[in-house]
Amino acid sequence: MSQFTVDRENAPSVEEILAALNGDDIVEFEFDDYALYVEYSEEGNAFIGWIDTYNEENYYFDNGSGNTEMVELKINACPEERMMCYDAEALKEIVLYFCETGEMNPKYNWIEEPIEE
User: Fold this and answer.
1) How many domains does the chain have?
2) Which of 23, 76, 96, 104 would you call most buried, defined as having the most Cβ atoms within 10 angstroms of its Cβ?
């Protein structure tokens, strides 16, 4: 698992961020009270989650397929296929946007799910 803490004064370089997106098991980026998790399937596709830990909000990338079948990941299982990102460029845009702002990239659709306690 790779983990990065991101802030405006001490952010990892774009090269470091992109190097982390190499299909390893899990990559985690933290920015203030927000986190972005990327977990890979064997095929190198990504399950992406954005979490606001302060407000207990949880969102997942939505590929628009509507498919709710489970997908095996390298470590866990993705709850639904519609939450998988199959486009490496989209993944890069999402991660770089998060590392710059701490927010979900508004260019993409997100599925809200409550955090279970």
Assistant:
1) 1
2) 104
Answer yes or no: is pLDDT of 79 > 90.
no
Q: Residue 91 has what pLDDT?
A: 96
Query: Would you say residue 16 has pLDDT above 90?
Result: no
Q: How far is CA 78 from the centre of its chain?
A: 12
- Tell me, what amino acid is at 87? D
Return d(Cα 43, Cα 72) in angstroms, integer.
10
d(CA 3, CA 37): 9
